[in-house]
């Protein structure tokens, strides 16, 4: 793997003067061009998959395939006419657009309302002028629907029925127990909601067209796009609804006991039924991987240990199940009559876990070609997991503040990291190192200062130079720095375990056109480019 430097910025955080309060697909290219001035040849984003209304976490998508229409560049939608997207807004909507553009945080609800209204107008124009006339563009949409039918049929109908049935979970939709298994019943519902289903397919078609154009723009720049594949989808998702037989309904996913949670954690997420998936040669896993390989040059497998073993808790039915269902909540819980079920690993035993992980990851590596896979192997990871990753030539992560001997409090030297690895100072789930630094204990700051060759009391600028240089000169083939580190605002993307309006709403502090002209940020980019060149990460 070629030595390369990259930057992590969620798609929702990108910002240009044209975007509508949230990053959009077309913003990928100018952002990559800006990053390249700093010697970075890779842009990593977080999952861009479609979220339900009210959801903000990119790891809570209702699909493992469909892109979120909120990222569509409306100005590039030709069905809005020569005046463009803003021409269809009324005065109040124009004022709202200006507010959203100026907002320091992503206001998901407001952005969705505004962009959805414009997309609906675009679809009406397309339907009347193109679809009814069976035009060449209508033919293109039909081709997309046919090509992506394996996932888009389920997603379009699932979204449509969720809208029709309100907050009820799919298990409680009228006659859904039958229709989810009976093609005739599904076909009837498609006919009943044909236009709304088509509208969703239209949105996905636009998003994927724009994505392909952005990929071509990135390739022309020589900048790779790295994505992120969540380990699992939620119960209320098109994938579990459409492929329910491939998910277990007797257990839920969580985390084993540790010092922070002595009884373990129950995330109330679905659990893959590996035995059932084996029967069709992991077809869903293969399809998901191949789709990701079309979106990205390489992508990160979140929670890679889950492909080896899942910590699961048996489901117990709640006495108030009907009442909970009426409120739109999940109808299952691990609590019942004051008792708690004991969790366990699935599969059980190291031999079975090693075999399971090896088979799954080998299948995914093969399906991903020519894209490359990276493993998120942070946290408590059994030795055999990293042994399998090495066997399959899959890089893992090295987050420098966590790379230490916890007995002797000695940090591992980055220039001794494995070549096949990804080095970083921080991730989207930690504070950027510039602000994390203030939270570290004294001995930690002292050790990291020695590692970076800087004085313990160094000023912010001197420390930043030392820390970034240490990172880029790591032995790891890929290094990643957070976008917030590049622009120097020190803000977090997410704080795990905390429900906060600041989670998943981070935006770059200014449009990329302005970042390119900011003297302070220009100096940082020049410094990064010099480091990238001296460490062999750029020309």
From TrEMBL:
<dbReference type="InterPro" id="IPR003385">
    <property type="entry name" value="Glyco_hydro_77"/>
</dbReference>
<feature type="region of interest" description="Disordered">
    <location>
        <begin position="319"/>
        <end position="341"/>
    </location>
</feature>
<comment type="similarity">
    <text>Belongs to the disproportionating enzyme family.</text>
</comment>
<keyword id="KW-0808">Transferase</keyword>
<dbReference type="Pfam" id="PF02446">
    <property type="entry name" value="Glyco_hydro_77"/>
</dbReference>
<keyword id="KW-0119">Carbohydrate metabolism</keyword>
<keyword id="KW-0328">Glycosyltransferase</keyword>
<dbReference type="InterPro" id="IPR017853">
    <property type="entry name" value="GH"/>
</dbReference>
<protein>
    <recommendedName>
        <fullName>4-alpha-glucanotransferase</fullName>
        <ecNumber>2.4.1.25</ecNumber>
    </recommendedName>
</protein>
């Amino acid at each position: 793997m070629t030595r390369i430097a990259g930057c992590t910025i969620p798609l929702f955080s990108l910002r240009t003067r044209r975007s509508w309060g949230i990053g959009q697909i077309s913003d990928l290219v100018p952002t990559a061009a800006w990053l390249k001035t700093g010697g970075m040849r890779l842009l990593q984003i977080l999952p861009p998959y479609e979220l339900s209304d009210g959801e903000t976490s990119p790891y809570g998508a209702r699909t493992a395939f469909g892109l979120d229409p909120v990222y569509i560049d409306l100005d590039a939608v030709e069905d809005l006419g020569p005046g463009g997207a803003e021409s269809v807004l009324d005065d109040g909507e124009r004022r709202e657009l200006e507010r959203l553009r100026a907002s320091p945080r992503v206001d998901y609800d407001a952005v969705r309302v505004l962009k959805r209204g414009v997309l609906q107008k675009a679809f009406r124009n397309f339907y009347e002028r193109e679809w009814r006339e069976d035009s060449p563009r209508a033919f293109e949409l039909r081709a997309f629907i046919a090509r992506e039918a394996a996932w888009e049929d389920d997603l379009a109908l699932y979204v449509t029925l969720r809208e029709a049935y309100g907050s009820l979970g799919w298990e409680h939709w009228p006659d859904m127990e039958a229709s989810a298994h009976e093609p005739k019943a599904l076909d009837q519902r498609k006919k009943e909601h044909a236009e709304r289903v088509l509208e969703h397919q239209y949105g996905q078609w636009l998003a994927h067209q724009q994505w392909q154009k952005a990929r071509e723009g990135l390739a022309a720049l020589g900048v790779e796009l790295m994505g992120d594949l969540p380990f699992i989808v939620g119960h209320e998702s098109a994938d579990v609804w459409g492929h329910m037989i491939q998910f277990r309904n007797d257990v839920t996913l969580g985390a084993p006991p540790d010092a922070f949670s002595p009884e373990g954690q129950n995330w109330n997420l679905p659990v893959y039924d590996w035995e059932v998936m084996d029967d069709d040669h992991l077809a869903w896993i293969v399809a998901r991987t191949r789709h990701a390989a079309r979106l990205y040059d390489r992508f990160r497998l979140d929670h890679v240990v889950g492909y080896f073993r899942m910590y699961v808790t048996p489901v117990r039915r709640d006495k108030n199940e009907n009442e909970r269902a009426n409120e739109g909540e999940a109808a299952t819980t691990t609590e019942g009559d004051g008792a708690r079920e004991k969790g366990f690993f699935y599969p059980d035993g190291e031999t079975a876990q090693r075999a399971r992980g090896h088979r799954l990851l080998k299948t995914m590596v093969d399906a991903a070609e020519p894209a490359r896979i990276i493993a998120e192997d942070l946290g408590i990871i059994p030795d055999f997991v990293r042994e399998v990753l090495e066997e399959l030539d899959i890089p893992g992560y090295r987050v420098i503040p966590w790379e230490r001997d916890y007995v002797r409090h000695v940090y591992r030297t980055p220039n001794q990291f494995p070549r096949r690895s990804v080095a970083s100072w921080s991730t989207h789930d930690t504070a950027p190192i510039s602000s994390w630094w203030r939270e570290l204990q004294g001995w930690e700051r002292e050790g990291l200062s020695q590692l970076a060759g800087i004085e313990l009391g160094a000023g912010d600028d001197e420390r930043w130079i030392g820390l970034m240089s240490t990172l880029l000169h790591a032995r790891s083939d890929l290094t990643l720095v957070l976008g917030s580190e590049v622009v120097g605002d020190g803000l977090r993307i997410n704080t795990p375990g905390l429900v906060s309006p600041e989670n998943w709403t981070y935006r770059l502090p200014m449009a990329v056109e302005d970042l390119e002209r900011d003297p302070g940020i220009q100096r940082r980019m020049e410094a990064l480019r010099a480091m990238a060149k001296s460490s062999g990460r750029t020309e």
